[in-house]
Amino acid sequence: MATAAARRYARAVFDLAQEEGRVEEWRERLAVLREVLFEETVAAVLTNPTIPLSTRMELISVPSTALDEESINLAKLLVESNRVREISALVDEYEALADSAAGRVRATVTTAIELTTHDRDRVADQLSKRLGKEISLRLEVDPAILGGLKLQYGDHLVDASVATRLQQLRRRLAEAS
């Protein structure tokens, strides 16, 4: 779950990106920035209070092929405000804002085995028709659900897994005896 600070940073970046018409470009930049800052040794150095702030700022300011000037400025801001570890939440929040603005809904489908392309497309199409929005579908495999699927989008969870149905049946049988 995103902190209030991560939501504020994401909102600020999103507003700037939307104003400049560069929402997708910033989505890509933030993904790269997350990859760089989330790397364990980099995060350890940038969050280490025994290393002077000026040294940490110099380290993040080193020109690289991975980060452009605007990304470096955001990284500096995160280092300066001791929020480097919130980069992942910031990126997730930004992506949610971008999806919402574009009329997309993110959904996660969990199945016991990997879905075929046909089945994945069918789930996405059905959900898209039901919600009247474009669907960005993420797939997860969890053998523990045995069969069926779990579908989560927004605050909704549709659990049509065999494991859950068996658990419900066990409860009913226990209550009946």
Total of helices: 8
Low-confidence stretches: none
Instruction: Count all strands and give the number.
Output: 4
Describe the largest sheet: 4 strands, mixed
| The level-1 CATH class of the largest domain | Mainly Alpha
Strand content is: 15-25%
Order the strands across the largest sheet as they lie in space: 2-1-3-4
Radius of gyration: 21 Å
Provide the number of structural domains.
2
Mean pLDDT rating: 90
Can you say what the CATH homologous superfamily of the largest domain is? N-terminal domain of the delta subunit of the F1F0-ATP synthase
Q: What would you call the shape?
A: elongated
Please write the string of helix (H) and strand (E) elements.
HHHHHHEHEEEH
Describe the overall structure.
By secondary structure, the chain is an alpha+beta fold. The protein folds into two domains: 4-99, Orthogonal Bundle (Peroxidase, domain 1); 104-176, no CATH class. Helices cover 60% and strands 16% of the residues. The protein is built from eight helices and four strands, in the order H-H-H-H-H-H-E-H-E-E-E-H. The protein has helices spanning 4-20, 23-38, 40-46, 53-61, 69-80, 87-101, 117-131, 162-176; strands spanning 104-111, 134-141, 148-153, 156-161. The chain has a four-stranded mixed sheet, sandwiched between helices. Helix 7 links the parallel strand 1 (104-111) and strand 2. Helix 1 (4-20) runs antiparallel to helix 2 and helix 2 packs antiparallel against helix 6. The protein starts with a helix and ends with a helix. 19% of the residues are buried. The mean pLDDT is 90.
